[in-house]
């Protein structure tokens, strides 16, 4: 078989979120707003909260550790961490993650950034690499901490965690099709200048750019590939909050048949099941939605085509498709993911605010105690040391 005939895609995937969360009804009461604004208006029920001992490195390592065995670690040649929550302007978080996971030393480890889009670029790079080296594998991790500040407009759309994906030839879950269509626009809908603690957001403009980007990308994708919505068993969207994708999808479905509308909207709800309980993962939001779809839909089957819409403010948008592999459902981690969410600790608003305000000062040596499998153990000589349990 020639390399260009290889089927390459996601062989394994999983997500990790920190141990703490806030109930959105509690947050609504504390902020003196109708709880329907959060549960219905933006479509969020719970929000993941991270302690100071966790960061994008620990999220990434925890997510990847769930899917990698020793054979995988020996075959991974490329480690990509996509994030917009980088902890260092120079050293890539992927280098630290590579070491924590014990991946073979002769691997390329890099960090990628373009708001919430970068994981999609990471997957494209990983797929290209594996097509050229079909006996090897690549690891792509989307890891982020979404924080906007207490009492801010963006507070109810915060979140934290990571999604890890192992890319290989002849994958067990899905093939990535070579049909991506990407749109780049230089806009300021969401941005964070170097040194600024929290993002700047033009909320209404950002929503409008997202919706317009999906419309433009889909129209061009449909034109170039002769595709229709009826070709897809389901669609998954970048999900900064769960209503966002629906706002973009509904106008495009106006002229579709009732059966197509019903199918895609029903699957959309399956695809936001986990997102409603976790919140915004930035680079990981689309791929958390993909996991949610695969693990909560009762009708998906081998050979089904799923469309993925990736969006990163600033802005880069992309639509591409994947195809499910026979037996894909046997390689998911639904039980583990539901247990992870079930075992979290609900924080009072006071405890959440205290945890939110805790900061790491790299200028002062300090030790920490955290029983999570991967955690920051110490601050020493102006850098973070990590513990692997």
TrEMBL record:
<feature type="active site" description="Proton donor/acceptor">
    <location>
        <position position="238"/>
    </location>
</feature>
<dbReference type="InterPro" id="IPR011554">
    <property type="entry name" value="HMG_CoA_synthase_prok"/>
</dbReference>
<feature type="binding site">
    <location>
        <position position="247"/>
    </location>
    <ligand>
        <name>(3S)-3-hydroxy-3-methylglutaryl-CoA</name>
    </ligand>
</feature>
<feature type="binding site">
    <location>
        <position position="34"/>
    </location>
    <ligand>
        <name>(3S)-3-hydroxy-3-methylglutaryl-CoA</name>
    </ligand>
</feature>
<keyword id="KW-0012">Acyltransferase</keyword>
<feature type="binding site">
    <location>
        <position position="153"/>
    </location>
    <ligand>
        <name>substrate</name>
    </ligand>
</feature>
<feature type="binding site">
    <location>
        <position position="148"/>
    </location>
    <ligand>
        <name>substrate</name>
    </ligand>
</feature>
<dbReference type="Pfam" id="PF01154">
    <property type="entry name" value="HMG_CoA_synt_N"/>
</dbReference>
<protein>
    <submittedName>
        <fullName>Hydroxymethylglutaryl-CoA synthase</fullName>
        <ecNumber>2.3.3.10</ecNumber>
    </submittedName>
</protein>
<feature type="domain" description="Hydroxymethylglutaryl-coenzyme A synthase C-terminal">
    <location>
        <begin position="184"/>
        <end position="249"/>
    </location>
</feature>
<dbReference type="Pfam" id="PF08540">
    <property type="entry name" value="HMG_CoA_synt_C"/>
</dbReference>
<feature type="active site" description="Proton donor/acceptor">
    <location>
        <position position="84"/>
    </location>
</feature>
<dbReference type="InterPro" id="IPR013746">
    <property type="entry name" value="HMG_CoA_synt_C_dom"/>
</dbReference>
<dbReference type="GO" id="GO:0006084">
    <property type="term" value="P:acetyl-CoA metabolic process"/>
</dbReference>
<feature type="binding site">
    <location>
        <position position="280"/>
    </location>
    <ligand>
        <name>(3S)-3-hydroxy-3-methylglutaryl-CoA</name>
    </ligand>
</feature>
<dbReference type="GO" id="GO:0004421">
    <property type="term" value="F:hydroxymethylglutaryl-CoA synthase activity"/>
</dbReference>
<dbReference type="InterPro" id="IPR016039">
    <property type="entry name" value="Thiolase-like"/>
</dbReference>
<dbReference type="InterPro" id="IPR013528">
    <property type="entry name" value="HMG_CoA_synth_N"/>
</dbReference>
<feature type="domain" description="Hydroxymethylglutaryl-coenzyme A synthase N-terminal">
    <location>
        <begin position="7"/>
        <end position="170"/>
    </location>
</feature>
<keyword id="KW-0808">Transferase</keyword>
<feature type="domain" description="Hydroxymethylglutaryl-coenzyme A synthase C-terminal">
    <location>
        <begin position="268"/>
        <end position="367"/>
    </location>
</feature>
<feature type="active site" description="Acyl-thioester intermediate">
    <location>
        <position position="116"/>
    </location>
</feature>
<comment type="similarity">
    <text>Belongs to the thiolase-like superfamily. HMG-CoA synthase family.</text>
</comment>
């Amino acid at each position: 078989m020639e390399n260009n005939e290889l089927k390459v895609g996601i062989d394994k995937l999983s997500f990790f979120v920190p141990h703490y969360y806030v109930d959105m009804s509690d947050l609504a009461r504390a902020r003196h707003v109708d709880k329907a604004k959060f549960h219905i208006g933006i479509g969020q029920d719970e929000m993941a909260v991270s302690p100071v001992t966790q960061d994008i490195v620990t999220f990434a390592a925890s997510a990847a550790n769930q899917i990698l065995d020793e054979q995988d670690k020996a075959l991974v040649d490329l480690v990509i961490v996509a994030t917009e929550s980088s902890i260092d302007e120079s050293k890539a978080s992927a280098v630290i993650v590579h070491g924590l996971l014990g991946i073979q030393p002769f691997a390329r480890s890099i960090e990628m950034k373009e708001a919430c889009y970068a994981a999609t670029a990471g997957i494209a790079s990983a797929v290209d690499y594996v097509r050229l080296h079909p006996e090897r594998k690549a690891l792509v991790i989307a890891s982020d901490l979404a924080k906007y500040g207490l009492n801010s407009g963006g507070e109810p759309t915060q979140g934290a965690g990571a999604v890890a994906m192992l890319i290989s030839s002849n994958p067990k879950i899905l093939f990535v099709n070579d049909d991506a269509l990407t749109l780049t626009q230089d806009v300021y809908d969401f941005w964070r200048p170097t040194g600024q603690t929290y993002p700047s957001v033009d909320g209404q403009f950002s929503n409008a750019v997202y919706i317009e980007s999906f419309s433009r990308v889909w129209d061009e994708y449909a034109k170039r590939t002769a595709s229709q919505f009826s070709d897809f068993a389901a669609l998954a969207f970048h999900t900064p909050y769960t209503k966002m994708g629906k706002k973009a999808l509904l106008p495009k479905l106006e002229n579709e048949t009732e059966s197509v509308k019903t199918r895609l909207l029903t699957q959309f709800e399956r695809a936001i099941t986990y997102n409603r309980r976790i919140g915004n993962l930035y680079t990981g939001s689309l791929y958390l939605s993909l996991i949610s779809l695969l693990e909560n839909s009762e009708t998906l089957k081998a050979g089904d085509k799923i469309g993925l819409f990736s969006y990163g403010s600033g802005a880069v948008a992309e639509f591409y498709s994947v195809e499910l592999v026979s037996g894909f459902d046997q390689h998911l981690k639904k039980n583990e993911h539901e247990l992870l969410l079930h075992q979290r600790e609900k924080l009072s608003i006071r405890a959440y605010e205290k945890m939110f305000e805790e900061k790491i000062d790299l200028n002062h040596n300090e030790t920490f105690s955290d029983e999570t499998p991967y955690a920051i153990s110490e601050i020493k000589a102006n850098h973070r040391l990590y513990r692997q349990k």
